[in-house]
Amino acid sequence: MQPFDFICHIEPAGIDGLIFYFSGDDSRQTNARVACCYQALKDKNPAWLKEAIPAYDSLLVVFKVAQIDSHGVYAFLRHLPMALHEQTAIKKHKIPVWYGAPQANDLALVSTHTGLTEKEIITLHTSTVYRVYAVGFAPGFAYLGDSAEKLNVPRRDTPRTKVPAGAVAIADRQSAVYPNTSPGGWHLLGMSPMKMVDTSNAVAGRLQMGDEVSFFAIDETQYRSWHEQ
Asked: 168 in helix, strand or coil?
Protein backbone atom coordinates (compact mmCIF):
# COMPACT_ATOMS: atom_id res chain seq x y z
CA MET A 1 0.00 0.00 0.00
CA GLN A 2 1.52 3.25 -1.17
CA PRO A 3 1.37 6.56 0.75
CA PHE A 4 -0.97 9.19 -0.66
CA ASP A 5 -1.82 12.84 -0.04
CA PHE A 6 -0.82 13.59 3.58
CA ILE A 7 -0.67 9.93 4.61
CA CYS A 8 3.01 9.03 4.72
CA HIS A 9 2.95 5.47 6.04
CA ILE A 10 0.48 2.61 6.53
CA GLU A 11 0.84 -0.38 8.83
CA PRO A 12 -1.40 -3.38 9.52
CA ALA A 13 -2.82 -3.74 13.03
CA GLY A 14 -3.87 -7.37 13.29
CA ILE A 15 -6.23 -8.92 10.76
CA ASP A 16 -8.91 -6.25 11.13
CA GLY A 17 -7.03 -2.98 11.43
CA LEU A 18 -4.87 -0.48 9.58
CA ILE A 19 -2.90 2.41 11.04
CA PHE A 20 -2.56 5.46 8.79
CA TYR A 21 0.27 7.86 9.68
CA PHE A 22 0.09 11.51 8.64
CA SER A 23 2.68 14.15 7.77
CA GLY A 24 2.66 17.92 8.22
CA ASP A 25 4.86 20.96 8.61
CA ASP A 26 4.46 20.78 12.39
CA SER A 27 2.59 18.79 15.03
CA ARG A 28 -0.52 20.97 14.85
CA GLN A 29 -0.89 20.68 11.09
CA THR A 30 -0.27 16.93 11.25
CA ASN A 31 -2.89 16.48 13.96
CA ALA A 32 -5.37 18.69 12.09
CA ARG A 33 -5.04 16.35 9.10
CA VAL A 34 -5.67 13.35 11.34
CA ALA A 35 -8.80 15.08 12.67
CA CYS A 36 -9.91 15.93 9.13
CA CYS A 37 -9.63 12.31 7.98
CA TYR A 38 -11.27 11.01 11.15
CA GLN A 39 -14.26 13.34 10.74
CA ALA A 40 -14.62 12.53 7.05
CA LEU A 41 -14.61 8.81 7.81
CA LYS A 42 -17.13 9.20 10.65
CA ASP A 43 -19.39 11.30 8.40
CA LYS A 44 -19.41 8.58 5.73
CA ASN A 45 -19.82 5.90 8.42
CA PRO A 46 -19.38 2.87 6.12
CA ALA A 47 -21.12 -0.31 7.24
CA TRP A 48 -17.79 -2.12 7.59
CA LEU A 49 -16.35 0.40 10.10
CA LYS A 50 -16.03 -1.01 13.63
CA GLU A 51 -13.96 1.76 15.18
CA ALA A 52 -11.76 4.72 14.28
CA ILE A 53 -9.23 5.91 16.88
CA PRO A 54 -7.32 9.15 16.19
CA ALA A 55 -4.01 9.99 17.88
CA TYR A 56 -1.32 12.66 17.56
CA ASP A 57 -0.16 11.68 14.07
CA SER A 58 -2.13 8.55 13.22
CA LEU A 59 -5.57 7.06 12.72
CA LEU A 60 -6.35 3.45 13.58
CA VAL A 61 -9.19 2.07 11.45
CA VAL A 62 -10.75 -1.19 12.65
CA PHE A 63 -13.01 -2.94 10.15
CA LYS A 64 -15.34 -5.93 9.84
CA VAL A 65 -13.38 -8.61 8.00
CA ALA A 66 -16.59 -10.32 6.85
CA GLN A 67 -17.45 -7.21 4.82
CA ILE A 68 -14.14 -5.81 3.59
CA ASP A 69 -10.38 -6.47 3.54
CA SER A 70 -7.47 -4.15 4.20
CA HIS A 71 -7.10 -3.27 0.50
CA GLY A 72 -10.74 -2.21 0.38
CA VAL A 73 -10.24 0.03 3.43
CA TYR A 74 -7.13 1.52 1.83
CA ALA A 75 -9.01 2.26 -1.40
CA PHE A 76 -11.91 3.81 0.55
CA LEU A 77 -9.65 6.23 2.44
CA ARG A 78 -7.65 7.05 -0.67
CA HIS A 79 -10.82 8.34 -2.34
CA LEU A 80 -12.29 9.98 0.76
CA PRO A 81 -12.87 13.73 0.09
CA MET A 82 -11.05 14.95 3.19
CA ALA A 83 -10.42 18.45 1.86
CA LEU A 84 -14.10 19.25 2.43
CA HIS A 85 -13.74 18.67 6.16
CA GLU A 86 -11.17 21.26 7.21
CA GLN A 87 -12.09 22.54 10.65
CA THR A 88 -13.59 26.02 10.29
CA ALA A 89 -14.91 26.71 13.79
CA ILE A 90 -12.55 25.74 16.59
CA LYS A 91 -14.15 25.29 19.99
CA LYS A 92 -12.23 27.19 22.66
CA HIS A 93 -12.16 26.41 26.38
CA LYS A 94 -10.84 28.41 29.33
CA ILE A 95 -10.08 26.21 32.34
CA PRO A 96 -9.59 27.63 35.86
CA VAL A 97 -6.75 26.25 37.98
CA TRP A 98 -5.90 26.64 41.64
CA TYR A 99 -2.14 26.38 41.18
CA GLY A 100 -0.29 24.87 44.11
CA ALA A 101 -3.37 23.23 45.63
CA PRO A 102 -2.00 20.96 48.39
CA GLN A 103 -3.54 17.79 46.95
CA ALA A 104 -1.87 18.40 43.55
CA ASN A 105 1.37 20.30 44.00
CA ASP A 106 4.56 19.27 42.22
CA LEU A 107 5.57 22.88 41.53
CA ALA A 108 8.79 22.49 43.51
CA LEU A 109 9.77 19.39 41.50
CA VAL A 110 8.92 21.11 38.21
CA SER A 111 11.01 24.07 39.36
CA THR A 112 13.95 21.74 40.02
CA HIS A 113 13.60 20.15 36.55
CA THR A 114 13.25 23.42 34.65
CA GLY A 115 15.13 26.00 36.70
CA LEU A 116 12.02 28.21 36.61
CA THR A 117 10.44 29.80 39.64
CA GLU A 118 6.95 28.65 40.59
CA LYS A 119 5.57 31.99 39.41
CA GLU A 120 7.31 31.57 36.03
CA ILE A 121 5.88 28.04 35.69
CA ILE A 122 2.35 29.34 36.24
CA THR A 123 2.90 32.25 33.85
CA LEU A 124 4.12 29.93 31.09
CA HIS A 125 1.30 27.46 31.65
CA THR A 126 -1.40 30.14 31.54
CA SER A 127 0.08 31.98 28.53
CA THR A 128 0.00 28.90 26.25
CA VAL A 129 -2.91 28.04 23.94
CA TYR A 130 -3.09 24.25 23.76
CA ARG A 131 -4.57 22.02 21.08
CA VAL A 132 -6.44 18.84 22.00
CA TYR A 133 -4.34 16.31 20.09
CA ALA A 134 -6.12 13.16 21.26
CA VAL A 135 -8.53 11.84 23.85
CA GLY A 136 -7.79 8.54 25.55
CA PHE A 137 -6.23 6.69 28.52
CA ALA A 138 -9.51 7.29 30.37
CA PRO A 139 -12.89 8.75 29.31
CA GLY A 140 -12.50 12.52 29.00
CA PHE A 141 -8.69 12.51 29.37
CA ALA A 142 -7.44 14.93 26.71
CA TYR A 143 -3.81 15.22 25.64
CA LEU A 144 -3.00 18.91 25.21
CA GLY A 145 0.01 20.29 23.41
CA ASP A 146 2.35 21.87 23.07
CA SER A 147 3.72 23.23 26.31
CA ALA A 148 6.49 25.79 26.12
CA GLU A 149 9.89 24.15 25.66
CA LYS A 150 10.95 25.52 29.05
CA LEU A 151 8.14 23.45 30.62
CA ASN A 152 9.32 20.21 29.04
CA VAL A 153 9.54 17.85 32.01
CA PRO A 154 9.68 14.04 32.10
CA ARG A 155 7.12 11.87 33.79
CA ARG A 156 7.67 11.15 37.47
CA ASP A 157 10.11 8.37 38.29
CA THR A 158 7.42 6.76 40.44
CA PRO A 159 3.82 7.17 39.26
CA ARG A 160 1.15 7.92 41.83
CA THR A 161 -1.41 5.21 42.49
CA LYS A 162 -4.10 7.86 42.98
CA VAL A 163 -4.32 11.25 41.27
CA PRO A 164 -7.41 13.27 42.26
CA ALA A 165 -10.07 14.17 39.71
CA GLY A 166 -9.47 17.71 38.47
CA ALA A 167 -5.69 17.60 38.87
CA VAL A 168 -3.90 19.64 36.21
CA ALA A 169 -0.68 18.00 35.07
CA ILE A 170 2.24 18.29 32.64
CA ALA A 171 4.72 15.85 31.10
CA ASP A 172 6.81 15.83 27.91
CA ARG A 173 5.46 19.15 26.58
CA GLN A 174 1.92 17.96 27.19
CA SER A 175 -0.73 19.12 29.63
CA ALA A 176 -3.91 17.42 30.85
CA VAL A 177 -6.70 17.56 33.39
CA TYR A 178 -7.47 14.25 35.09
CA PRO A 179 -11.24 13.73 34.59
CA ASN A 180 -11.52 11.12 37.34
CA THR A 181 -9.43 9.76 40.19
CA SER A 182 -6.88 7.41 38.66
CA PRO A 183 -3.22 6.39 38.71
CA GLY A 184 -0.87 8.78 36.94
CA GLY A 185 2.77 9.63 36.40
CA TRP A 186 2.59 13.27 35.33
CA HIS A 187 3.73 16.24 37.43
CA LEU A 188 0.80 18.09 39.04
CA LEU A 189 0.46 21.86 38.97
CA GLY A 190 -2.84 22.34 40.75
CA MET A 191 -6.56 21.62 40.76
CA SER A 192 -9.39 22.67 38.45
CA PRO A 193 -13.00 22.77 39.69
CA MET A 194 -14.31 22.29 36.14
CA LYS A 195 -15.74 18.84 35.36
CA MET A 196 -14.15 17.19 32.34
CA VAL A 197 -16.85 14.52 31.91
CA ASP A 198 -20.61 15.03 31.63
CA THR A 199 -22.37 11.67 31.72
CA SER A 200 -25.68 13.33 30.76
CA ASN A 201 -24.23 14.39 27.41
CA ALA A 202 -23.95 12.13 24.37
CA VAL A 203 -20.37 13.37 23.96
CA ALA A 204 -19.27 12.80 27.54
CA GLY A 205 -15.86 14.49 27.38
CA ARG A 206 -15.79 18.30 27.61
CA LEU A 207 -12.68 18.44 25.43
CA GLN A 208 -12.67 16.98 21.92
CA MET A 209 -9.92 16.51 19.34
CA GLY A 210 -9.13 19.79 17.60
CA ASP A 211 -10.41 22.04 20.40
CA GLU A 212 -8.22 24.78 21.85
CA VAL A 213 -7.61 25.13 25.59
CA SER A 214 -6.12 27.84 27.77
CA PHE A 215 -5.75 27.92 31.55
CA PHE A 216 -6.19 30.79 34.00
CA ALA A 217 -5.28 31.05 37.67
CA ILE A 218 -7.80 31.21 40.52
CA ASP A 219 -7.25 31.16 44.27
CA GLU A 220 -8.51 28.73 46.89
CA THR A 221 -11.61 30.81 47.68
CA GLN A 222 -12.62 30.92 44.01
CA TYR A 223 -11.95 27.20 43.68
CA ARG A 224 -14.21 26.32 46.60
CA SER A 225 -16.87 28.78 45.47
CA TRP A 226 -16.82 27.23 41.98
CA HIS A 227 -17.38 23.79 43.51
CA GLU A 228 -20.35 25.04 45.49
CA GLN A 229 -22.11 26.45 42.42
From this structure: strand
